Amino acid sequence: MSDVTAAVDNPLIHVAAGALADAQGRILIAKRPDRAHQGGLWEFPGGKLEPGETPAEALARELFEELGVEIRSWRPLIRIPHDYGDRRVLLDVYRVDIFEGESIGREGQPLAWVAPDAMDPVLFPAADRPIITALRLPEFYLISGADAACPDDFIRRLSKALAAGIRLVQLRAKGLCDADYTSLVRLAYPLCRIAGARLLLNRDLKLAKKLPCDGLHLTSGMLHSLKERPCDFDRLVGASCHNAEELRLAERLGLDYVFLSPVEATATHPNAEPLGWECFVRLVDSAHLPVYALGGMTPAHLDRCIHAGAQGVAAIRGLWPD
Questions:
Q1: pLDDT on residue 226
Q2: Do 55 and 155 belong to one domain?
Q3: What's the predicted TM-score (pTM) here?
Q4: Cα separation of 68 and 137, whole Å?
Q5: What residue numbers bound the domain in which 144 lies?
Q6: CA–CA distance from 50 to each of 55, 123, 320 (Å)?
Q7: N or C: which end of the chain has fewer CB atoms below 10 A?
Q8: 3-class DSSP assignment, residue 128
């Protein structure tokens, strides 16, 4: 079958969906009718774009028609293309933090408010599963600084970052031997647990899998060396990517997120050619999983990253306390 014939027989269905959040951070989900495609599974409310509609216009219309709510504040969360075999979908997903009206299932659909961490991805269509990951991940991702060789200073800074609201931390300490790295993990992990933050390790996989942590971060070299996801889905796994080929590889391995870098020039890697914002936006648009912008990033870049379709900002200097 030619590509043209396949496209005609299996046209792309463009959908706008909303992740409505309440004051407790719970997200509204709805159950699909048993007779529908992916029937009986839970989903994020929304529907197909009508001719001439933008995704944001379709979102507002669909949420009013399905739930009786009028949205007041929303932002892009993630864009997901997915091929089910019998149909292809493109999901433009928005996080909705402010809306008016009491949500009701106007079409008779069951509704539930559920915390992202309590969502079971198996109960959702496959295309929705990266949305759950995006909802679980914070906007800021802290990469540890260069003072890991001084444990007291490191823990002081980490404590300050956690107190300021950081909830995702990568322990990147290339200069430490395995024994010192292990000791630092055993100091950092309990601090993160108490703060409700996740600690991910950037280290040789054999060692990292033995240590207490919430997940692993792969260098691009590690990414290219793997044939399958390096651990179960109870831990997060991300990777550093620099181009479309590495994004596709991360997706095939079933990773949870990626860094895309360097977006701008950075003192950490002065010889690396920056992607620039135009290229960054294009690559994020093609991605099937949450993307963090890395390289010259600070909290001031967050809005630009969000509107480019990214999950948020990852940084060392820009987030690690002075």
A1: 96
A2: no
A3: 0.90
A4: 28
A5: 140-315
A6: 9, 28, 45
A7: C
A8: helix
